[in-house]
Structure formats: C-alpha cells, structure tokens
Amino acid sequence: MTLKNIAVFTFMLCIAVTTRAQEDTTAAKTITLLEVVVQHDAKLRNSREKKQGADLQISTDQLLESIAGVNMIRRGSYAWEPTIRGLNAGQINVTISGMAIVGACTDRMDPASSYIEPNNLQSISVSYGVNNQSYGSSIGGGFNFKLKQPELGNEKKITGLAGLGYETNAHAMQTLAAVEYSGKRFAIRGNGIFRKAGSYTAGGGEKIPFSQYAKWNGGLSAIYRLADHHFITLDYIQDEGRDIGYPALLMDVAFAKAKIGSVSYQYKPHNKRLHSWETKWYYNTIDHAMDDTHRPKNQVSIHMDMPGTSQTMGFYSDAQWGLGSRHHITTRLNGYRNRLHAEMTMYPENAAPMFMLTIPDAQRDVIGLDISDRIELSSKAEIIAGIRTDYTGSSLYSAEGKQLLSGMYTGNLNRSRFLFNAYVNGQYRVSDHWLLYTNVAKGMRGATLQEMYGFYLFNRMDGYDYLGNPGLSNEESWNLGTGVRFQQKKITVDGQAFAYLFRDYIAGKPREGYSVMTSGAKGVKQYINIASAVLYGAEATVSARPFSFLRINSINTYSRGQDADHHALPLIAPFKSENTVTALWKGYRFHTTAVYSAAQRHVSYTGYGELPSESFFILHLGAGKSFTIRTTVLDFNVRMMNVFDKKYYEHLDIVKLSRPGRNLEIHTTIRF
Amino acid sequence: MNRIFFFSIFSAILFTACEKENTKPSSLIDKHKISVITENNIVTTLWADNTTLQTGYNRLYISLEDMQGNEMKNAVLTYSPLMDMGTKKHSSPAEQPHYNNDLKLYEGAVVFTMPTSEMGSWQLDVSVNGKIITFPLTIQDAPRKNSGVYAGTDENKYVLALIPPVKWQVGLNDLEILISRQVSMMEFTGAEGFTVVFTPEMPSMDHGSPNNISPVSTGNGRYKGKVNYTMTGDWRLHFKLKKNDEVIVEDAYVDILF
Q1: What does the DSSP 8-state code read for residue A446?
Q2: SS3 content of chain B, % helix, strand, coil (to 5)
Q3: Nearest by CB: A406 against B172, B203, B210
C-alpha cells in the first residue's frame, strides 16, 4: 500500500537545471520537500527515467542554484552560500546525511555545502520551512546532503566511473573517479575529485582577478551486514581547498579543509510496527585560513592572518514506525556540540602585531526531539503533523574568550534556550488531475554563535563591523503556505504561495559610539531583535512534454520581504524565471536554457546597506550524447554558458561582482 | 659505592642550596634586589619589581634588619628622590612607604621623570627614623612613554604616570594613574579634583574601544578606572584633565604594548 499511496501524494518538482537532473526526481517526498538526485552509476541506467548521465562535474553550488527558490550568495567562483526563499545562514539548517556541520569562516566564506561534492552524493533534499525532514529547529527549512551509500548485492560486483572536464573560461579543469565494490554482506565505495580553475573573465571581457581556486575531495563509504536487517555503515569525507580567491571580499583563502566522519548502525526489520531505525555518531572538523598575501599592496591596508576552526560532534537516532495502517510515525532524537574559534592577527608596518579573537571560543550544545506523524485520512487526504523541541546551550569554553568579552558585557554570558517547532502539512486530491496542499508551521531558531558572540566581524555587504549580542531572543515565525498542482500526461503545473511572519527578527543595527576595527568600515553594527518582519512570495513551475522528444521546464520565483521599520529585507532575490527546452534526436540531447531576472528595486540602503540590482537575461546552450559499449557508458556533454557573453550579476552577489562571461564546458564521463 | 657517595654529597649540596633560597621571605621571590646599604647599625635593602629601574612609576620596597638579622617593622620611612643636574637639583613625585604585612616590606613608589644621563644622576634618599640613607640609582629610559610632565593651563606643572598593573590582558582591565602637582622643585603632591576624560586608541589602527571607564579620584592623586582592550598590540591611552569644565591638560598620554 505504502509505495502506491505515497506516489499518489507525492509532489514532484522537476527542475530545469539544464536537463541534467530533472528526470530523476523519482523520490517520494512530501509537499514541502524537493529532492535533487545527483548520483548516477551505470547500474542505474536501466531505470525508466534515466536518459542521460547527471553531470557530476558541475559544482554543488550550481546544482543548488538550479533548484526552485534557492538563490546563492556569491563572493567568487567558489563556495557560494545557499539561501532558501531569501532565508540564509542561521535561518536554515544544513546537514550532511543528518550530520550538523558549521563553517569555520567568520566572513561566511565556507558554508557547509562547500565541503561536499556531487561525487559524494546520492541526493540533495531541500525543505522549505519547518517540517519533519530537518535535523534541527529552523525557520526556513534547509538542505540535507545525502551521501551516496554503496549497495549490497548488486549484480555487478565492481562498478565505477571516471571523468574529465575542461572549461574555457578560467581554464577550469576537473577530474574525478569513483569505484564501488558490492558483495552480499559487504560493500564499499571510494570517490575522489580534483578541481582547479584560474581567474575567470566576466561578460564583455573584464578579467576578474583573484577568482581562482583548487580543491580535492575524497570520500569513502562502507556498509557491512551484521545479520539479517542489521547493518553498520562508515562514512568519511575529506575536502581540501587551496589558494581560493574571493574577488568580492578583501581577503582570499589559503586553505579550507574539512574532515567529516561517521559510523552508523541501521536496523531495518521492515515489520509493521518498526520500519527502520538508524543511529549515527559523527565528528567533523574544519580548518580554515584567510589570506591577503597575494593581493596588491594598495588593496591591503594592513596585512592580517585570520584562521578559524570548527568542530562538531554529535549523534542522531532516527526511527520510522507504523501505527495501524494510517499512521506513519517518525521519531528523531539528535544532539551535537559545536565549537568555533576564530582569530585575527594584524601586522602593522611600524608597530607590534595585534592579536584578537573574532569568535571568542564559542560553544553550542543542542539536544532535540522530533516526532511527526503522517496520517492517511482517506485515499484523497493526508496530513503530516509534528513537533520538534530543542534545548540549546551557548557558552564560551576558554578563559581567553571570556576575558575578551569582559570588556563588552558584564555577568555570565552562557545562555540556554528552548526552541519549539510545530507543523501541519495537508494535501487533498481533488481529482486525478488536481491536488491542493497547504501548510502551517511555527518555526523558531536560536541566534547563531556569530550573532551571539561575534567580535567585530566585517560584513562586506553593508561595510559594517558586526558585534554579537548574547542577549538575543529566539527568532520566531509563523510559516504559511498553500499551493495547487495540476497534473496531466503531458503537462504538470504547480503554483504555490508562501508567507513567513517573523517575530524578533535578528538583524544588525548601527551602534553609536563604537569605533570600527576594520579600516574602511562604515561603522559598527550589533545584532538585535527587530519586533517583526514579513517575507512572502510565490513559485510556479511548469513541466511539459508535448512530444516524446521535447520537454519544456519552467521555474518562476518571486519573493519580497520587509521588516517592522519598513526596510526591505536583505538578500531577497527579485522575480526570476528559468526556462529550459530539451530535445532528443537520434540519441543526442540538445537543450537551451533562458534565464531572466528582473531588477531588484525593493532594497534598503539605510537598513541593510543594499543597493538596487539591474535585470538581466542570459542564455545557455548544451548538447550531449551517451555511447554504450556493452556495459560501459561514455557520456559526452558540451555546454555553452552565457552564450551572448552578457555582463551580469545576480542580486545576491556580494558587491555586484560580475559573473562569468561566455564559457564552453566539455565534460566526459565513463561509467562501468 | 663511589656513586652513592657522590650522590649523597650532591644531594646534600643541593639541599642546603635550596634551604638557603627558602630563607628569603616568600614575598621577596618576585622582587629584585637593587641595592644594600649598612649604616647606623641597620641593613637597609632596596627592592623593586624588576631588575632595573625605568622612567615612570616604580614601586620601591625597603627591608630593614638590625645587625642580628632581626626584621624591623616599626620604623618611620620617607622617600625623597633627587635629580642632580649639577647646576640645579629637583625632586620627583613619590608615594611614601608603609609597611606591607603581606610582603613583609615597606612599600612605596617613585615616579622618575627622566632617565639617568650625562645631564644628571638620580639618588633616592630614604629617611629611616629621621636618619638619611642615600641610594644612588640608575634610571633607564622606558621603552614606551608611561608618564609625562605637563604644563597645565592653570600655571601648574603636573606629572601623570601610569601605575603598572600586574599584567594587561585582552578585555576589561583595571586602570590606575597617579597625577602629581609640582609644588616646588623639591616638592610634589597628589593632585586632587580633576575630572579625567579617558580614551584608548590603537595608533596603528586608528580605532579605540568601547566601554572604558574614565578614572576617578581615590585620593592622594590616584585615579582609578577601567580600560577595555579589544586586542593585543600597541595602545595609546589618552587622558584629558579637566577642572570645573576647564581643560587643564589637553592630552596626557601613555603608550602600552602587550
């Protein structure tokens, strides 16, 4: 019963990446969740929807950007920061197979997603708002990067892939490989990728200096069947970036390294009561160092070193239960401890070096319980209701950290908060073609450690130094959403509208009488709670297949936000429309993607330091073919990005840094 | 056998050596002996916080012993520093010593306003129960300006000196200064009644720090406040001295490095 029913209730969005992944959103997910399937091995090629190899050579950032409602904050070619419907950083949850991971950089140069490669991944789940898919309290939902697990008992014992790619703009190249062994009791998978790029050229021919990067990423996963229904799995990922330029910022990065490891125990009895139960323990550590030594002298008012570290250890225990035939219960207990340390040493020309902690050894402890129930009310209606409570403790773990903040605040700076999230999602199938869905949720999040304890963290966007505020209240929201879906054989149209009503919205406000720490900064801001804010918007997607050889995908998104002081909320993308036409002809795939973004005029310079952005229209072309020789598949993809070499930027791009101009990408992958 | 013999000799030497060290009062361990003078059947020893004396505020300690080695706790002491420049002589601000029971020393302080040089030499006259003992002193120039002499708009001359803390650290620190008024070439007194406006600055960064507390008078020319260092490095502490809303000294400053 389950599979079929889930399929009925399933809300599948097809994404118009550029024909890469859209055929593969087969996963059965609830209405607020979108899953992008990333990984493709030769063994999957017989699956019904499989038409071409997903291109593992594109970056995680580009994959994320292709998802409806997801916009990226861009500071250079590398490590873009994802936002969901304009919500970002502490407002969304980013996990890797359920593991909490927190970037170490004070300038947000290393979001968790920068330490993951498509080559590591099975899929990316995106949840919009509060629901039962996340591993923490949040307001804006989040991403869960599901690591690719090796599979037991495959017909082919050894499978794998190898790929090589080159891009003309920035002379970027990447080479990747993965190999998997599948036995009856034991399976193991290893994967690796190396990427290197020079500085790119923006549309119109302007060279963007300091936009280079190099990185490697390796992953190892193993699964062992202890007994029937009992499994133990191991995952390890190491990701090391080096010499990464951030042209939108004042500094680059010497290195950004992550080590991510976990062991989990899975019990899958598949009986009526308990479907599955997984318990995972994990640890990850990030080591990050900013670097200004390559910048020309006139850009560096004072040389400085800014390293930072982040360590997270945690666990979760996740069980799926059945209660009668109508209730599907998920319980999730999870907890973690994260420690952040960031420091800055400045070297003035004729004076002694200056040392300062910028995140004064801050620690976050979280323990949370999530219980949700998916209830099948009838063959036409289903609701998912759940609650999540978290206890979070924030503290300073070193004497130096406490001593530093003694100059800013009096008394004990440890804080503990309770968070409470609750959600009800419902959907009703009106007819074979029409589906209505709606969701109401209460979201809550605690302030991040940066927002609580950050010490003069420079924000390039508005040019202010930011001070934390240990007295921040939780940010809360009521999330409302509703949508309608029309589905026919040849066309699927989906439209939904959403609104987030915030209370105690966390934002930085100028603090008078404080002198700036960063030379050239406009002033000092401190995080405070703003009484209220509102964010609303809509998304419409169309997926049409008028003929068997032609597919049309369209994603249209719009959102708008405003706080209690009538300031437009920052980092909100304007109306954007991404349309892809894919044609199949004699085994060849051709696609063209047109992206239009309206201008963003609804900005607040006084409130958030944002300036209006111009509209743009760009076009991408692509072609591909897969050659099959026995059990080996050779994928060949060519893309011409930004065909007209337009000079453009997106509203979320820091300092309106121009994006790459025309770029020819050639990606080849062999799968066996 | 031989080895054991040597070992016991060695330990004996070591042991006696340690014992000798232990006879020094514990409070003296972190003080440095500057000079010893035996006069009038009293052994007078001058101690300081460092091995050398520098311009600025120096804590100076005296221990007194009679010829039998008994400590004398009830003497009356005064400090009179003197700069002899040949053609003229002058004194400098001092805080008169009192017996400190914890330290088991007489504790006072002197602000040396200039270093020893060809121009002139320093001496400290210590009066012990009315009898003067003279310690010739060498005062080195401090690597950073920690005191200064300022002509006030009220026609008075003032000396402002930073009273060095045990240790500076990032964050909030106690800050104490001594402001002295020159009464005559030979006499200084604690300057009272000032409103001090205090602002720290990092000269190489052109910024200050928030949440400082301007020093307020605690008597005898001492003023106590708080300084907030947001980072290590070079700091300059600016003091504006005001009386009845009138600026007497515009910018007395001291430099800090830690």
Answers
A1: P
A2: 10, 55, 35
A3: B172
Q: pLDDT band at A54, cuts 50/70/90?
A: low
User: How far apart are alpha carbons A140 and A69 in whole angstroms?
Assistant: 11
Highest mean pLDDT among A382-386, A458-462, A486-490, A594-598: A594-598
Domain ranges of chain A: 2-671
* Tokens representing residue B208 in the block: 């200050």
CB within 8 Å of A303: residues ≥ 6 apart? A292, A293, A346, A347
Backbone phi and psi for residue B113, each to the nearest 5 degrees, phi listed first = -95, -10
Is residue A288 within 8 Å of A110, Cβ to Cβ? yes
B204 contacts A354? CB cut-off 8 A: yes
Question: For the residues A606-627, what does the mean pLDDT come to?
Answer: 95
Strand ranges inside A397-433, DSSP E: 415-429
Amino acid A513: pLDDT: 86
Band of the pLDDT at A52, cuts 50, 70, 90? very low
**ipTM for this model:** 0.84
Average pLDDT across chain A, whole number: 90
Kindly report the number of other CB atoms within 10 A of residue B90's CB atom: 18
Confidence of residue B1 (pLDDT cuts 50, 70, 90): very low
pLDDT tens-digit map of A118-170: 999 988 888 888 887 788 888 999 999 999 999 999 989 999 999 999 999 99
Q: Searching chain B, which residue's CA lies closest to the CA of residue A519?
A: B205
What is the number of residues in chain A? Answer: 672
Residues of chain B contacting residue A455, judged by C-beta atoms under 8 Å apart: 230
CA distance linking residue B22 with residue B28, whole number of Å: 10
Write out the E strands in A228-273: 230-244, 252-267
Instruction: State the pLDDT at residue A55.
Output: 74
Structure tokens at A247: 């042209």
Both tokens of A498, joined, read: 């959403």
Separation between Cα atoms, residue B160 and residue B152, nearest integer Å: 11
| pLDDT band of B2, cuts 50, 70, 90 | low
Domains and CATH numbers, chain B: 25-140 (2.60.40.10), 147-257 (2.60.40.10)
Nearest CA in chain A to B213: A407
Summarize pLDDT for A262-279 with one digit per residue, the tens.
999 999 998 879 999 999
**Residue B214 sits at the chain A interface (C-beta within 8 Å):** no
Q: Give DSSP secondary structure letters for A179-241.
A: EEEE-SSEEEEEEEEEEEE---BBTTS-B-SS--EEEEEEEEEEEEEEETTEEEEEEEEEEEE
The DSSP call for residue A207 is B
Cα–Cα dist A617/A446, whole Å:
39
Whether A15 contacts A25, CB under 8 Å? yes
Type of residue at A77? S
> How near does any CA of chain A get to the CA of B132, in Å?
44
Contact assignment for B257 to A404 by CB distance below 8 Å? no
What ranges in chain B are assigned the alpha helix state H? Answer: 2-23
The contact set of A with B (CB < 8 A) is 302, 344, 346, 348-357, 400, 402-408, 455-456, 513-517, 519
Question: A653: distance to nearest CA of chain B, Å?
Answer: 29
Could you tell me the fold of the domain covering A2-671? Maltoporin; Chain A (2.40.170)
Q: Does B172 touch chain A (CB under 8 A)?
A: yes
pLDDT at A668 over 60: yes
Q: Which residue of A has its CA nearest to B231?
A: A356
Using an 8 Å CB-CB cutoff, list chain B residues near A468. none
**From the CA of A414, how many Å to the nearest CA of chain B?**
17
Q: At residue A405, does pLDDT exceed 90?
A: yes
| Residue-by-residue DSSP string for A150-183 | P-TT-SSSEEEEEEEEEETGGGEEEEEEEEEEE-
Checking DSSP bridges between strand B105-112 and strand B94-100, what pairing results, if any?
A: antiparallel
Phi, psi (degrees; rounded to nearest 5) at B14: -60, -45
- Residue A5 dihedral angles phi and psi, to the nearest 5°: -65, -40
